[in-house]
Amino acid sequence: MRDPNALITTAQLEALLNTPNLRLYDCTTTTVPPPPGVDAPYVAVSGRPAFEQAHIPGADYLDIQAEFSDNTTPLRFMLADLATLEAAFSRHGLAAGHKIVLYSANNMWMSTRFWWMLRALGVDATVLDGGFDKWRAENRPTESGPPKGYPPATFRATPRPSLFGNKHDVLAGMQAPNTVIVNALGDELFRGSAPSRYGRPGRIPGSVQVSAATLIEPATKTFTTLEDAKQKFESQGVTPEKHVIVYCGGGISANIDLFLLHQLGYNNLTLYDASMGEWARDETLPIQTG
């Protein structure tokens, strides 16, 4: 059931730091409220300045919005086209045969987002459990300065297109008896009980809630146990034989749910990439509150 190659502990990673085929990437990007007059739920802020202050030795930095997202749309973090992704990962020295480890600071959302992106491109990667927060809390080694980078490589994708979906896939899923749609946001956004930064308050009709925040241990910022995750999903009718579509606000925190569903052995999983950033603003799409 569990994929042992998808998750690595801080101790295991420290033991691998000098391995020649290791490709270690800091994926940190944060979001902040938009400035006055900007019609957007948030602004993406690169984690590179913080990376240059401190990062795991040898790591490179991946800027999701600047290099790996579709910048032709006002929505943030939308998956870029295949050629853009192949070129970006090639620049960062990623290719077949490497041990790819991803981490982020503040939470693991961005590292799991890159993990899901790479899965969609046919590449298996590994997420650091607890991310940079746990690494620093344990006083493990860090270094400062700009990324040294890895030698350029040739990245070739083998796409798995079903791993990313759009609003039409969601609309079809709403009518499909063997599909369940999962909202990874918190209670207030799920219920639509307050104004939403995404647009109309509420959720996709018929969707169930398994908040990404409840799948992380607050003290250590590591994933919850598989037993706990299994109970949370199954209590909402999210069972392995179903097609599971997961969404959030901008296609980021939902990847926490997707990571644990993968670890539980679910194999028919889709991320609604545009999530509520699109759905809440499209008046032609139904919405549910309460």
Short description:
The protein has helices spanning 10-16, 48-53, 64-67, 82-91, 109-120, 131-137, 167-175, 187-191, 226-234, 254-263, 275-279; strands at residues 7-8, 22-26, 29-32, 43-46, 60-61, 99-103, 126-128, 164-165, 179-183, 208-209, 243-247, 269-272. It is α/β, with parallel strands linked by helices and 290 residues long.
Explained architecture:
The chain is of the alpha/beta class and 290 residues long. The chain folds into two domains: 7-159, Oxidized Rhodanese, domain 1, CATH 3.40.250; 162-279, Oxidized Rhodanese, domain 1, CATH 3.40.250.10. Helices cover 29% and strands 15% of the residues. The protein has eleven helices and twelve strands. The strands form three sheets. A five-stranded parallel beta sheet has the order 1-7-6-2-5. Helix 5 (109-120) packs across helix 10. The longest helix is centred in the middle third of the chain and has 12 residues, at 109-120. It is globular, with a radius of gyration of 18 Å. The model has no long low-confidence stretch (mean pLDDT 96).
Strand line-up in the sheet with most strands: 1-7-6-2-5
Taken from the alpha-carbon principal axes, the silhouette is: globular
Integer tally of domains: 2
Number of strands: 12
CATH architecture of the largest domain: 3-Layer(aba) Sandwich
How far the N terminus sits from the C terminus, by CA atoms, comes to: 35 Å
Tell me the Rg in angstroms. Answer: 18 Å
* Class per helix and strand makeup: alpha/beta
Structure annotation, total helices: 11
The poorly predicted ranges are none
Q: CATH topology of the largest domain, which one?
A: Oxidized Rhodanese, domain 1
User: How much is the average pLDDT?
Assistant: 96
**Topology as H/E string?**
EHEEEHEHHEHEHEHEHEHEHEH
CATH superfamily annotation of the largest domain: Rhodanese-like domain
CATH C-level class of the largest domain is: Alpha Beta
